[in-house]
Amino acid sequence: MTSPPNPSLDAARPAANATVHASAGTGKTWLLVTRLVRLLLDGAEPGRILAVTFTRKAAAEMLERLTERLRLLATVPDADLDPLLAQMGVAPEPELRRQARRLYETLLRADFNLRATTFHSVCQEILQRFPLEAGVPPGFELLEAEGDARDAAWDALYAEATAAPEGDIGRALDTLMDGCGGLGSVQTALGSFLAHRIDWWAYTDGRDDPAAWAGERLREQLDIDADSDPERSFFNDLTCQRLQQFRDLLLLHPTATHKKQAAAIAAALNTGTPAPARIEALWPALLTQKGEPLSRKASKTLESKLGADGMERLLELHTQLCEQFLDLLDARQRRANWQLNRAWYHAGARLLEQFQAIKRNQRQLDFSDLEWHAYQLLNRSEQAHWVQYKLDNRIDHLLVDEFQDTNPTQWRLLLPLLEELAAGSERPRSVFLVGDEKQSIYRFRRADSRLLGAASQWLEQHLASRRHSLTHSRRSAAAVIDCVNRVFAQPELRSRMPHFEPHGTFHPDLWGRVEVLPLIQPGTVDEDGEEQPASDASTLRDPLRQPRELPLDERYYREGRQAAERIQTLIAGGCLLEEGDRARPVRYGDILILLRSRTHAADYERALRDAGIPCLGTSRGALLDSLEARDLEALLQTLIAPHNNLALAQVLRSPLFAATDADLVRLAGLKQGDWMARLSALADDPATPEALRRAADCLPRWGERVGRLPVHDLLDRIFFEGDVLARYAAATPTALRPQVLANLQRFLELALEIDSGRYPSLPRFLQQLSRLRERSDEAPDDAPPAAGDRVRMLTIHGAKGLEAPVVLLLDAAAAERDRSAWQALVDWPASEARPSYFLLNPGQARRDRISRDWQAAQQQAETREDANLLYVALTRARQLLIVSGTAPARGSGSGWHGLIRTGLAPETEALDTPLVLETGVAPAAAASVATPAGAEPPAPDPRLARPLELSLPRDRLAPSRGNETIADSEGFDADGRLRGQAVHLLLEWLSAPAPITAGIALQRLAAWAGRDAGEDDLQAWLAEARAVLAHPGLADLFDPARYETAWKEMPLHYLDNGVLVEGIVDRLVRRADRLLLIDYKTHRLGTAPAAQHAASFQGQMRYYAAGARRLWPQLPIECGILYTHSRELVLLDID
């Protein structure tokens, strides 16, 4: 139970304030849990410890690991306890051993639990405690999916602009349409404004008119003089003189090009032309179409025409005029961007107002609201110090995990708490931050990796904190770590990741291997993956007879096939993985495929599927597009609209009924009515196929329950009666079966989730499904299969925090793309209380020099994050890392693939062969887990794989229904249905193995009947049931001492010559020597003898006895009718 020495144990000391910069796989979670254990050992109260991370899953895992560690301390043998304590840096002592043993119970019995939670949960808790101080609705509801509110805000914005086209919003949208070049870019720009609403609130905090203030602030930053006209001022006397002189010099060497340029200058000097037209006219005389200065160089020809002085003057004028002209264009562009941003501020602020109003009217807060209101409460409100004081009294020890994912708002949330800790206290208090700048990959969520360094520096200055670096991996083999070191030692990546320190590993002898596969080269292929010959462009095609053949770009499918072949080789070749001192063959579940993005995931999934490799895909929001979900949706459409022939056809062909094409052709061939009517007509025809007869039986029955059952209950009944899971399992290939079954269960869960489980109508449920399908960001994902040996395919972002023995990094040659156009450009320095700038980032051609500089700074951050993404991908692997990529169709870049290959073999030029780095010794087959000797297990009987041929019963028989309305020629009561149900329930409750009291039974009965418990009828029914149970002559039925087992309300279902018999036996009593089947009757018999009345139930009880005899063929069976009012038991002759 020992481990290698841990150099980070100093950071786990309870009294130490520490920041830990933990590289991937170095055991940061173990260290964090160790810190928690040592805090508890040091006497810290669980309720005064706050551990914060970024996801609910991570918080739950942290608490689970802590609980498991404490349980281990409480239960290990005495001989193993000291090594466990020493492993955590604790010197064992008798009292400390006793305390360690008690920690598990201490945590479980604490009045206030240790809180392992997320930032958003902390904010939510603060706002729930102080709603009035924060200005939020008490009892607010958390809005996790904001799509509806966002759509409603857009509708309100469009409606306002439509109602007043000349109003502020109408003009702002017109400006955005012109400046952004279309509706799509406008929606992108305003969507980005909404996504960065916290940055906007912080940027304009305290301003009466945020949009106007932001516009004026941007004018100052862009150095714009609102009163000047740069186009008019450009054509001053001096510039005109220079242009005239430049034109004259050009004409001294009158080439065709110089003549055109001279003409352009002459047009620009025409004072009767508007200034914008003069600018456009001058452009070709000075700049290329790309906006770069024309190339002019000294030459002997030019010197002979103009003389040496003239040539020198021409070149001088060209340089001066180009600089002036570029300054003019930049000033014009800055002015245009200022106007565009002013419109963006006004429209974005109004969209945000509508969005907030919609949520406010529904008393809802989203995650951004939680952060902002909590930030305001702790930093800006009048009650800030009082709230900080209240929170400070509850938090003595603060631990934050994954700090590199913190955003500026969250840092500003923590700062008041840290300042309180720094102010000093009589109580022991501490701070512990864990993070890694190299793993900061969530910039699109406003995460800022600079904050980890800023927080470390702040803690060092104010709390004497120490910085600890962890660089030795407890996860990866030496080959993987070697690869990481070599790749990030290259100058290109060193500049992106300047704080990278060479890594080591605690597993230097563990076998490891890194493979870099050759790039998949461009080329067109046929459907079988074979290269296609180039088409003959000289041959004319008849478009009426011959379809146009488009070449298929199957590069990524081919890369997927290459990965599939490598996986199959690993599985079939018996590649062994080490586990401790043993080895075992690699399994599909050991393999993790990582993708940079989901762009080509479908091609990779198809390749794996074609190769028969079970895979859990990375498709996002794909549940509703799966075939099984489409089938269920078509079924529900059919139930509410039976005339929808297309939906019905899909349902019939689905595994639910498995109708053949011939079945559908037969259905389509009938002429009368819609398909549902035709299906009903075929139900009575003996020649009708089984699938159609079954559909004709089930669909009307399910349709009758629409509107009477909630959607979830309806689906649950369909799943049960239709045997949905078993039918889909039988129809699905083995590799896909777990995913399909999981998706079916997930679809069933949606019925409870939509409308927060408020039981929507079926049309409403279907409408919500359509809405979710349209929103990819809110559509439900494929459900994770419950279990199974399968390859996992994830994006690198989705795999953060995971690891696998075998990792395949695909699409590694993808090039970085600039996706910043029409996005918010924001910079919020860690040391500042608000962003330094907030503007719309225009397209590449529309950027001025200032916004270009700001964009360059942002691009550097993007480049750093791209390197971080590569680092995260490489460090997921434990033993085997395989890298592949696809060469771009155009260009020569090779992205990460080239960086990895160059890092491993800088001098290797052969790109068509795999590159391998291997360390350690691969485990031999002899070291693997021993296989039990003896014969192989027998193969299953092939007959077991055949589907069962089950025919649907043509008739149903419910024996009890024939006796529901018995003629009463003697005048007995046959009208007490409510009384009968009530007495049945009371007998069931009062005769249970753990019977309830009479008073509780009466209260239950009153609730069931919707009546008052004091009513005479209810009292009489209770007395009747109690009298039955207390009657000495009926003790054989109700006294547990007189029988072995008794069942109440026992259902019976069996086939009798093709007829389905179904019923419910009120009470079945098993004794050692016989079975008693009892049916309760609550009739008032009047003068009729009980035996005469009971005889009418003889046929019903014979059917019940026949069913029971199939279950207990060795026991004699007696049947009887128990009249509860008279407490008479009449035994029937059933033979």
Low-confidence stretches: 1-5, 525-531, 926-935, 964-975
Strand order of the largest sheet: 15-16-14-17-20-11-21
Structural class by SSE content = alpha/beta
Helix percent band: 40-55%
Q: What's the pLDDT, averaged over the residues?
A: 86
Distance between the termini: 72 Å
Number of beta strands: 27
Largest sheet: 7 strands, mixed
How many separate helices? 41
What oligomeric assembly is this protein in? single chain
Number of domains: 5
The proportion of residues in beta strands is 5-15%
Based on CA inertia axes, which overall geometry fits? globular
Gyration radius (Cα, Å) is 39 Å
Q: Can you characterise this structure?
A:
- It is built from 41 helices and 27 strands.
- Strand 23 (1045-1056) and strand 24 (1059-1070) form a beta hairpin.
- It has 1135 residues and is α/β, with parallel strands linked by helices.
- It folds into 5 domains: 11-138 and 395-470, 3-Layer(aba) Sandwich (Rossmann fold), CATH 3.40.50; 144-362, no CATH class; 472-522 and 553-619 and 788-819 and 863-926, P-loop containing nucleotide triphosphate hydrolases (Rossmann fold), CATH 3.40.50.300; 621-774, PCRA, domain 4 (Orthogonal Bundle), CATH 1.10.486.10; 956-965 and 972-1132, Lambda Exonuclease, Chain A.
- Strands 15-16-14-17-20-11-21 form a 7-stranded mixed sheet, sandwiched between helices.
- The two termini are 72 Å apart.
- Mean pLDDT is 86; it is low at 1-5, 525-531, 926-935 and 964-975.
